[in-house]
Amino acid sequence: SSNHRDAMLRTTDSFRTDLPSRDDLLRRMKKFRKAVSKAKHVVVLGGGASGVETACEVKDAHPTTKVTLVHSKDRLMEKALQDAKDSMALLEKLKAKGIDVRLNTKWNEKEIEEMDALVIRATGVLEPNTLFLKDKVNDFNFFGFYFNLLNVFNF
């Protein structure tokens, strides 16, 4: 792609400290991009900001690839979107893009295996690591909510 990036930005999504080296990240990104481009079906687990963004990025970059977004809750981005109407509008936009959205669905390894799909897990981060901002930002409480940087991967 002419828009290829040779770097990855690590977001503050967790308290993980065992980050791989830059070269290792680049190698992983290249392998990941290749796997996504070859996949006939991509399943994204998690309907939060990261899962929604990932599903959209894959579908935009690979329109003929089947994309399924699996979320265990009854609506998308339920923590970030307080109004259920906003979640419903988001759901409609994803469906219009051709993304198969499955709400109230608990996934299990056997079901996913039967789908014969590339699985991307976008689950599990409940609280971002924003402690490094405490002395750098006037209104630290502003950063207390869950946030996500978009377009980290360019598929």
Verbal overview:
With 155 residues, the chain is of the alpha/beta class. Helix content is 33%, strand content 12%. The protein contains four helices and four strands, in the order H-E-H-E-H-E-H-E. Residues 139-155 have low confidence and may be disordered.
Summarize the structure.
With 155 residues, the chain is of the alpha/beta class. It is built from four helices and four strands; from the N terminus they run αβαβαβαβ.
Summarize the SSE layout with pairings.
Layout: H1 22-38, E1 41-45, H2 49-61, E2 66-70, H3 84-97, E3 99-102, H4 109-115, E4 118-121
Task: List descriptors.
155 residues, alpha/beta, 4-stranded parallel sheet, 4 helices, 4 strands, 12% strand, globular
Please provide the count of β strands. 4
Low-confidence sequence ranges: 139-155
Structural class: alpha/beta
Rg, nearest Å: 16 Å
Helix content class = 25-40%
How far from one another are the termini? 9 Å
Strand content: 5-15%
Biggest sheet, spatial arrangement of strands: 3-2-1-4
